[in-house]
Design a protein that fits this description.
It is built from one helix and eight strands; from the N terminus they run αββββββββ. The protein is mainly beta.
Length: 165
């Protein structure tokens, strides 16, 4: 618990440092990724995540490991581990509500959870926890996972039309 608290404090400090060099339209993307605590869950492949909002705006996080805050000697995406990633980029138009996870490599990976926090100057903080609990496997043809939890009513000022009753 103390490590998670320390990581959170370092994340906040890192966000403020990055923000001092950011444009007013930039946001800080903080991403926690938990690999499943099961045999063979680890991967050394590249992982790319596309973040999306209800307006269908998208922000790509290409090769997530390049965003890593755990140090150059850290081995990312190991069983049972939570890894932290962060960087600045253009803000999405609405709160994040969807992700696409792509495994680009030669092996498989079991993704347990992904939590994303987005902060920006003069903008509301957006946080979303995705419970993934799925294998991505290049050899099995399942190297992409899409989790779309977006509804049109997530967009301020929009009217929601849902059917299915």
């Amino acid at each position: 618990m103390a490590i998670k608290h320390l990581s959170f404090n370092l994340l906040i400090l890192y966000s403020f440092i990055i923000h001092t060099n950011a444009n007013a339209s930039d946001c800080i993307y903080n991403i926690y990724v938990q690999t499943g605590n099961i045999p063979y869950a680890a991967t050394s492949s590249n992982i790319t995540i596309f973040l999306s909002d209800a307006t269908k705006a998208e922000f790509p996080v290409v090769n997530l490991q390049n965003w890593g805050l755990m140090g150059s000697a850290h081995h990312y995406f190991r069983p049972g581990e939570v890894d932290l990633f962060s960087r600045k980029g253009p803000c999405l138009r609405a709160p994040i509500c969807g992700i696409t996870i792509v495994l680009d490599g030669f092996d498989s990976w079991y993704c347990d959870d992904i939590e994303i926090t987005i902060v920006g100057f003069g903008k509301s903080c957006s946080q979303k926890h995705f419970v993934v609990k799925k294998w991505l496997d290049v050899n099995a043809g399942t190297a992409v996972i899409v989790q779309d939890e977006c509804f049109i009513d997530n967009v301020p000022g929009s009217i929601s039309f849902r059917s299915g009753y």
